[in-house]
Design goal:
- The protein has one domain: Up-down Bundle (Growth Hormone, Chain: A).
- The protein is 72% helix and 0% strand.
- It has 20 helices and no strands.
- Helix 12 runs parallel beside helix 17.
- The N and C termini lie far apart (61 Å).
- 49% of the residues are buried.
- It is a multi-pass membrane protein.
Length: 470
């Protein structure tokens, strides 16, 4: 539910952002009435990616507040909306490491990868739900589904209805957030944290007994021995962490950063790609609400045919293929997409049956228990930094190379074709950093973090010291 909510709140904005141009940028003085300027479009779509790390309560409050961004002045509405979308990003960002760590620590080594991937696959259903909600709301407000010719007056006459549409779509994100919060407060702390960090073996055994519905005994002596080990005491900014996990952190942050540049640049701006490839009619041939319907229908079809299947292919094959092979394959086909075929369905399928899923799974497995969530959050933040680069950078780079074709003096870009070539280069570099990804298939969390090896080494040293002559 956490990831379902994250995806709905993140991507529903792309369904309704064109409405803002229709409603708030209709003045005849504007160079292209009914169209958001590039800087405003980038801010509305990307600002939630700038805020990281809180919880479902914040998602509830900010989903409601986003829909209540009222003002008589267009700039005030957009500014208020961007502020609450930024705050929403704190809740979404905090939920990424929590969801991954909770599932990783509760799962066993045989099914851990598939279960973590299943958590992440809910992102696809969140995107799909956003499209369905937008379809329903648009249908409720535009009964005729006719497409009258667009004009500034027509846009203005639709403003009250269109204003309801985007607010309802955004505020529906409150419902799954409330459910997420309710179930989270009823969930006990993970046993590994309780035992290894809080050092409460009895509570850990009690919690796991309730979860697994079996009777477990607290192993106080084993816990005391483990918590005294050096491997469980070092922090993030220590030589021990640098020696054991610095390369791992570079691997998780770099691949997630590069992946999100490509993924978010094309996901949040699908609506523009739909127009470019002729999937939806030109804006001047339909009213504002009908445009929302067409965009939502296209995104729903994409989610059903590509996004959701891609995630579930990862769930099905990750235990057999491993993360390394899936991630390398995904980056390869994303590169091919950008350089050769430019097929949106192929790109999204292999992004999700590829690095978009594995970059979430790997950080949840390869770091010490006391640093799992911290390192996953750092990796998530790196990914969202890449998303910001992708959203803002792609929007400006995709502007026409010819300065005479840009709106109101906006700086010329390199064009859509060259932008896709650049994204292909980024995906190719992602393939290179994937070579640093450790394969964790079939290994326990303790084996992956090196804690078992260090414990065995300590036991051998103690045995040698005992056997040595006095």
């Amino acid at each position: 539910m956490g990831f379902f909510t994250d995806a709905y709140d993140l991507f529903c904005i792309s369904l309704v952002s064109k409405l803002f141009g229709r409603i708030y940028y209709t003045e005849l003085t504007h160079p292209k009435p009914g169209t958001l300027p590039p800087n405003v479009a980038a801010a509305v779509n990307g600002v939630s990616l700038c805020g990281l790390s809180y919880d479902p309560v914040l998602m509830v409050l900010c989903s409601v507040a986003s829909g209540l961004s009222f003002s008589d002045h267009p700039k005030s509405v957009i500014t208020t909306l961007c502020f609450f979308r930024f705050c929403l990003g704190f809740g979404i960002g905090g939920d990424y490491p929590l969801s991954a760590t909770i599932m990783s620590e509760y799962a066993n080594k045989k099914t851990r990868e598939a279960l973590i991937a299943t958590v992440f696959s809910m992102k696809g259903f969140g995107i799909l739900a956003g499209g369905i909600v937008a379809l329903i709301v648009a249908a409720a407000f535009d009964h005729s589904f006719k497409a009258p010719a667009y004009s500034v007056d027509r846009a203005a006459s639709l403003a009250p209805q269109a204003d309801f549409v985007w607010r309802i779509v955004l505020m529906v994100g409150t419902l799954p957030a409330i459910l997420t919060y309710y179930w989270r407060i009823k969930m006990p702390e993970t046993a590994r944290y309780t035992a290894l960090v809080a050092k409460n073996a009895k509570q850990a055994a009690s919690d796991m007994s309730k979860i697994l519905q079996v009777q477990l005994e607290a192993e106080e002596e084993k816990l005391e021995k483990i918590t005294q080990e050096k491997s469980n005491s070092f922090g993030l900014f220590t030589k021990q962490f640098a020696d054991h996990h610095c390369l791992h952190l570079l691997c998780t942050t770099s691949t997630w950063f590069l992946l999100d540049i490509a993924f978010y640049s094309q996901n949040l701006f699908q609506k523009d790609i739909f127009s470019a490839i002729g999937w939806i009619p030109k804006a001047d041939s339909m009213n504002a609400i009908y445009e929302v319907y067409k965009i939502a229908r296209a995104q729903t079809l994409i989610a059903m045919c590509s996004t959701v299947p891609g995630y579930w292919f990862t769930v099905a094959f990750i235990d057999y293929m491993g993360r390394f092979a899936i991630q390398l394959m995904g980056f390869f086909f994303m590169t091919v997409h950008n350089w050769v075929c430019c097929d949106l369905l192929t790109h999204l399928f292999f992004a999700n049956f590829g690095p978009n899923a594995t970059t979430f799974v790997v950080p949840a497995e390869i770091f010490p228990a006391r640093l799992w969530s911290t390192c996953h959050d750092i990796s998530t933040a790196a990914g969202k930094a890449g998303a910001i680069v992708g959203v803002f950078g792609f929007l400006y780079a995709a502007q026409s190379k010819d300065a005479t074709k840009t709106d109101a003096g906006y700086p010329p870009g390199i064009g859509v074709k060259n932008s896709l070539i650049m994204l292909g280069v980024i995906n190719f570099v992602g393939m290179g950093f994937t070579l640093l990804v450790p394969e964790s298939k079939g290994k326990s969390l303790e084996d992956l973090t090196g804690e078992n090896e260090e414990e065995k080494a300590t036991e051998q040293q103690a045995a040698s010291a005992t056997a040595a002559p006095v």
